[in-house]
Design brief:
103 residues; alpha+beta; 4-stranded antiparallel β-sheet; two-stranded antiparallel sheet
């Protein structure tokens, strides 16, 4: 098994408007991208569990041409809200780092 952080060339998060956050996972090689996609590990139930949200609030979109996966989730607090600790959504990818992908 390998951790997602060890397989991805880019793993980042950012705002997708004031109410949503996008998690981007990009790969250098098609084989690695296919390994992650075909593993079935990255599914709404896992993402929902990691972020404390409902599975039907999770959107996972693979981009075959770019060897990338885009995950969109709702922000817990609207960007700029006094309770928001990450106004740009740039630190929200951390729960993805240690996800294990089978060989």
């Amino acid at each position: 098994m390998a951790r997602l952080i060890d397989l991805a060339s880019v793993l980042r998060s950012k705002n997708a408007g004031a109410l949503l956050c996008t998690l981007d996972i990009m790969f250098e090689e098609e084989a690695t991208y296919r390994r992650v996609c075909d593993s079935g590990v990255l599914e709404p139930g896992l993402i929902a569990k990691l972020y404390g949200i409902s599975g039907n609030e999770v959107s996972i979109i693979p981009y075959d041409v770019a060897y990338a996966i885009k995950i969109t989730i709702p922000r817990l607090h609207k960007s700029g809200d006094p309770d928001d600790s990450d106004i740009y959504g740039a630190q929200q990818h951390a729960p993805l780092l240690d996800i294990e992908i089978p060989d």
